[in-house]
């Protein structure tokens, strides 16, 4: 059993069998005798979701044992959000919602007494989701936030903040009715507090009034003290509690105990104590010259779809279609329909599919079945053999304690021959702390997974890549300030961590835009030049829907000493970012490609980033999945 959070004085725990319980044992103001333990119904896991890792729990009132209207909300790491009424009149069961927008995957839920809504902030804070317990729905309502009055931060401070792992907290003051959005930048270095109004404006403030804020996991919030911790963040009015400081934020976490006066700009956390650190079409872009058995170079391509094989009666039985690919070439781009027959289930993911495609590496597509078996296929590789496609089952996944293996961030391989290369390693990064790898063709008669638990949460949403230059798997932490490495020659149960120092940042950056976006990091290696790049991609929700659009991109060149040098000149390289592994090609080897470009090929957008004289400019070629240009 593991404790996962607290709300309204009730502590929530989760047992291995999937039963969530509410306890009042740890509430010092509850009865000493006869402590209450409320078991909630068994959790229901939606398709392509997980219910083992929980960011937090929130409740609409403090009486889940007898208040018929009390709602318990549980936010899981990933797309699932669930609600139930422990004392409700109807059958006790969960209402489950799948949030498609990935900017909510790591978010925390809170209950707003002012609006009688459960609220959840998206990554970067640019989008707010809401669920009305009085009018339950299977979808969230969304509101875009506009940031006003942002502080003018000096360049070194912004550089530091941009390299941090950022989290968002919604905090409501019951005494004043105000709602605050708190941005916490960890290593922990900085906090920024915004006062939310009813029109969706987030006004930067240094005055919380008579409030004190507690973050159990901001510059003027008035006479308020705020608390951030692993349980729900909350505010108290200092006039009601002697000894508390005005306009102050307390951080109470297993990793640190600290506090900050919101009026200090720029300000650092006054650390008091520290502790040990803690169904859509699949668009896959292939670097084809890395995928063929020979070294011949062929133009990069991406999978478009599969046309059903006729007659339809046969198609419904065997689910086969003919493969359609797109050739990525700015001058001669085209769609090619190949006679190669492939499984339609590899190309299209539906909600109720028993198998889901999760990514690609070296021309091999990885899929995950409901029974926990990960498969490698060469079906979608247009340069592989048409007859006798290879399907390579990997050993059953092993889930470490307090981890999950249902949602996979990506898959990476050390070579393109997992079927016969004894040294080929397949690495799988799961959403959350688990990282696993195995050798499908190793000398051992029964391949098995080597599993690593990464304690630092800045790696929970990260993607893994294989560095041919260093012969190791590498994972960038959120914000890019840390890179974890696993050396294949010296296997270990822990990652080797390297701190990254950012240099040569441009003097003028769209700081408010960048700070409101959902940021992701990509490590990209050029096999032709041996260079390694760290790419920061800043995305926002397009027009309030689930699709994300790239707003800004920054490219850094990494050296062996851990320095990340900002660059607007990649030489003759062209870079590709997609759901599969990012890669580079030499534009001189492929007629029609222009140097110093980053192509984004995703289900939600297709775009090209071009560097002009001063800063990168996005040329949006295809805005959304509907093909508008």
UniProtKB/TrEMBL annotation:
Coiled coil: none
Xref: InterPro entries: KIB1-4_b-propeller
Ranges where the KIB1-4 beta-propeller domain occurs: 3-257, 354-606
Domain of life: Eukaryota
Pfam families named in the record: Beta-prop_KIB1-4
Official protein name in the record: BnaCnng07620D protein
């Amino acid at each position: 059993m593991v404790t996962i959070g607290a709300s309204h004085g009730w502590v929530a725990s989760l047992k291995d069998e999937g039963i969530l319980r509410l306890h009042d044992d740890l509430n010092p103001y509850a009865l000493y005798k006869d402590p209450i333990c409320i078991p909630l119904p068994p959790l229901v896991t939606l398709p392509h979701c997980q219910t083992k890792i929980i960011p937090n729990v929130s409740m609409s009132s403090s009486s889940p044992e007898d208040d018929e209207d009390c709602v318990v909300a549980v936010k899981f790491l990933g797309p699932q959000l669930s609600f139930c009424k422990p004392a409700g009149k109807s059958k006790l069961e969960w209402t489950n919602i799948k949030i498609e927008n990935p900017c909510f995957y790591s978010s925390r839920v809170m209950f707003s007494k002012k609006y009688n809504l459960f609220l959840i902030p998206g990554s970067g804070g640019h989008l707010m989701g809401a669920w009305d317990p009085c009018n339950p729905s299977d979808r969230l309502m969304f509101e875009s936030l506009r940031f006003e009055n942002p502080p003018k931060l000096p360049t070194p401070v912004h550089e530091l903040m941009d390299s941090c792992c950022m989290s968002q907290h919604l905090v409501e003051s019951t005494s004043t009715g105000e709602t605050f959005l708190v941005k916490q930048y960890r290593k922990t270095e900085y906090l920024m507090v915004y006062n939310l109004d009813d029109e969706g404006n987030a006004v930067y403030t240094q005055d919380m009034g008579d409030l004190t804020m507690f973050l159990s996991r901001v510059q003027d919030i008035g006479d308020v003290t705020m608390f951030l911790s692993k349980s729900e963040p909350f505010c108290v009015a200092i006039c009601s509690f002697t000894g508390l400081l005005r306009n102050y934020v307390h951080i109470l976490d297993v990793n640190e105990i600290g506090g900050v006066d919101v009026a200090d700009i720029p300000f650092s956390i006054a650390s008091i104590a520290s502790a040990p650190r803690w169904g859509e079409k699949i668009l896959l872009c292939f670097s084809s010259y890395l995928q063929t058995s020979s070294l011949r170079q062929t133009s990069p391509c991406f999978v478009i779809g599969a046309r059903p094989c006729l007659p339809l009666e046969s198609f419904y039985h065997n689910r086969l279609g003919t493969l359609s690919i797109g050739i990525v070439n700015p001058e001669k781009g085209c769609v090619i329909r190949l006679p190669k027959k492939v499984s339609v289930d590899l190309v299209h993911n539906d909600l109720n599919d028993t198998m889901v495609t999760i990514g690609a590496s070296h021309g091999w597509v990885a899929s995950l079945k409901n029974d926990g078996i990960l498969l490698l296929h060469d079906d979608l590789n247009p340069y592989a053999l048409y007859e006798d496609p290879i399907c390579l089952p990997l050993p059953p996944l092993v889930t470490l304690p307090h981890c999950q293996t249902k949602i996979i961030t990506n898959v990476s391989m050390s070579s393109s021959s997992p079927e016969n290369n004894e040294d080929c390693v397949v690495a799988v990064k799961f959403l959350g702390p688990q990282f696993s790898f195995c050798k499908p063709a190793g000398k051992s008669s029964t391949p098995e997974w080597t599993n690593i638990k990464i304690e630092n949460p800045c790696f929970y949403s990260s993607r893994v890549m294989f560095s041919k230059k260093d012969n190791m798997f590498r994972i960038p932490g959120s914000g890019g300030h840390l890179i974890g490495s696993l050396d294949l020659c010296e296997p270990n149960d822990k990652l080797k961590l390297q701190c990254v120092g950012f240099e040569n940042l441009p003097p003028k950056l769209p700081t408010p835009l960048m700070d409101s976006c959902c940021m992701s990091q990509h490590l990209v290696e050029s096999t032709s030049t041996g260079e390694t790049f760290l790419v920061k991609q800043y995305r926002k929700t397009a027009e309030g829907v689930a699709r994300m659009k790239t707003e800004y991109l920054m490219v850094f060149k990494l050296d062996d000493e851990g320095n990340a040098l900002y660059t607007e000149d990649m030489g003759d390289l062209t870079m590709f970012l997609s759901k599969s592994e990012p890669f580079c090609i030499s534009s001189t080897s492929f007629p029609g490609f222009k140097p110093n470009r980053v192509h984004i090929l995703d289900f939600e957008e297709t775009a090209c980033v071009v560097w002009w004289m001063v800063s990168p400019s996005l040329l949006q070629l295809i805005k959304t999945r509907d093909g508008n240009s």
